[in-house]
Automatic annotation (TrEMBL):
InterPro entries: SpoA-like_sf (IPR036429). This is Flagellar motor switch protein FliN-like C-terminal domain-containing protein. It comes from hydrothermal vent metagenome.
Amino acid sequence: MKGETQAVHLARIMQKHKLYPEYELALPLVKVKKSSFKKLTQGDILLLGLDGLELILLLEGCVCANAEINEAQNSFKIKITNIVEKTDILNHSKKYEILKCSFGMLQSRKLEVGHKIDIAQLNLEDVTLFTEGRKQAEGKLVKVDDEIAIQIIKVNKNEKQR
């Protein structure tokens, strides 16, 4: 019994200790009208204007790479297609907000073109929506008229009032 407790404790310590840099996997950043985004409710469909599943990797909020999904031996991986040297800063305006659609965090020992990263721990259907670093809503990826969209599952009302 004591050995199991020590093993569980060691596993928790190792999960907290990061060996490699941690990147956030997300859809490309999107500008959304503030007035429209404030009216967002459960069940709404948010059209992103994406024909295919384009992905980006973020490090500390800055885009550092573009990626695509590859299937290899019954598991999904993302393949880095392009390293972003200089990030275009999308600034907030009075009319528009920058929307980040995040799938979650993953670790990679290196970041170079052609490198594949396992994404088995992430669910690529579930998306969390952030604006200005605050979690605004949760949703699922859906396809509408051959375009990728997000169906809103839950809106965080208390986060919007700040």
